[in-house]
Amino acid sequence: MTNVAIFVSGGGTNCENIIKYFKNSEEVKIRLVVSNKADAFALVRAQNQGVPTAVITKQDFNDRETMTSLLKEYDIQFIVLAGFLLIVPDFLIEAYDRRMINIHPALLPKYGGKGMYGHHVHEAVKAANEKETGMTVHYVSNVCDGGEIIAQFSTPLSPDDTPDDIAHKEHLLEMEHFPKVIEEIISHLLPLDENRKQH
């Protein structure tokens, strides 16, 4: 069983979707939801699903002892960033090398980097008259949105689409694909048991 923490800053639709997806999983357990915002609705969604939550300040997040202690308490082996807006400190990136992933609401390397999150991304996609948009799942590195890309899914856009329409189309991709990508990554991390070796 791999214990997972989800880091969020906002409403938490992805967070709730992931929790529900793995509710009865024998390989993945969502053990903790962490937010840097006490009023993030994601915390309510997590609590409603019976998942423990923690609120951290920016100072907490950048403190090695505080974060190491919190993640150790819940025996966290894998971290999912799902709309989390703080820059991850180096000590966490090193501790969770290739065990921490982020979702980005565009087809990286386009529309990534500092300040490119949420609606800012969809507005930029619209302004550039892109013919498609999509989602990217990538490993977290010390370059903002610059880690190795794991998976991308795209959706066509029409010239009439508003930034809200673009956001909606991209969000549907996240709902459909993000939990499956998490499952696939974690299944590759698990040690091969005898049963799997035979197949």
Give a short overview.
With 199 residues, this protein is α/β, with parallel strands linked by helices. It contains eight helices and seven strands.
Descriptive terms for the model:
single chain, 199 residues, alpha/beta, seven-stranded mixed beta sheet, 8 helices, 7 strands, disordered C terminus
Question: How would you explain this protein's 3D organization?
Answer:
There is one protein chain. This protein is α/β, with parallel strands linked by helices and 199 residues long. The chain contains eight helices and seven strands, in the order E-H-E-H-E-H-H-E-H-E-H-E-E-H-H. It has helices at residues 13-21, 41-48, 58-61, 64-73, 90-95, 118-127, 163-189, 194-198; strands at residues 2-8, 28-35, 53-55, 78-81, 100-104, 132-139, 149-156. The chain has a seven-stranded mixed sheet, covered by helices on one side. Strand 1 (2-8), helix 1 (13-21) and strand 2 form a beta-alpha-beta unit. Helix 1 (13-21) packs parallel to helix 7 (163-189). The longest helix has 27 residues, at 163-189.
